[in-house]
Amino acid sequence: MLRFAQGYGEAIEGELIVSAHGFNARYDMDRQKGVFARPGHDLYGESIAGKIFVFATPKGGIATSWALADLRRRGLAPLAILCRRANPVVVQGAVLAGIPIADGFEVDPVEYLKTGQRVRLDPARGELTIL
Fold it and tell me: What are the residue boundaries of the Phosphomevalonate dehydratase small subunit-like domain, all occurrences included (predicted)?
């Protein structure tokens, strides 16, 4: 079990998809298809829909907030967002879209967690359990 300092949202279980890159929902994603569309991104062509998305850091400005909400409306949003260190924009976007979010892990989640693992995220308890 991993502990983290801050979280928001309901407890959820799902499969991980992990990226060592930063994330901007507006500029990295094709929001019509729900896949990474920026060449050079380590998840290029992949979808985060219905998965728990682990990434290094948020990047960019306020567009991520409404872009996450747009992905949610289209049914293409991640189940949850985990990152090394969130910023106010990605937190605002997660809350707006109703996506659980966590950061401040006791270990680096990008290095420790692997794509395909199933986990249970409990933001209220500050716990991530690998199933």
Answer: 24-101
121 touches 23 (CB < 8 A): no
Superfamily of domain 2-130: Phosphohistidine domain (3.50.30.10)
Each residue's pLDDT tens digit, 37-47? 999 999 999 99
Place 61 in a pLDDT band, splitting at 50, 70 and 90.
Answer: confident
In the 8-state DSSP scheme, what is residue 67?
Answer: H
Token readout for 63 is: 């567009």
The CA radius of gyration of the chain, in Å to the nearest whole number, is 13
CA dihedral 63, 69, 74, 77 (to 10 degrees): 90
Instruction: Give the burial class of 31: count Cβ atoms within 10 A of its Cβ; 0-12 exposed, 13-18 middle, 19 or more buried.
Output: middle
pTM: 0.95
d(CA 11, CA 68): 19
CB crowding 94-118: b at 16 or more within 10 Å, else e: bbebebbbbbebeeebbeebeeebe
Strands 12-18 and 2-8: unpaired
Q: Which residues contact 88 (CB under 8 A, 6 or more apart)?
A: none
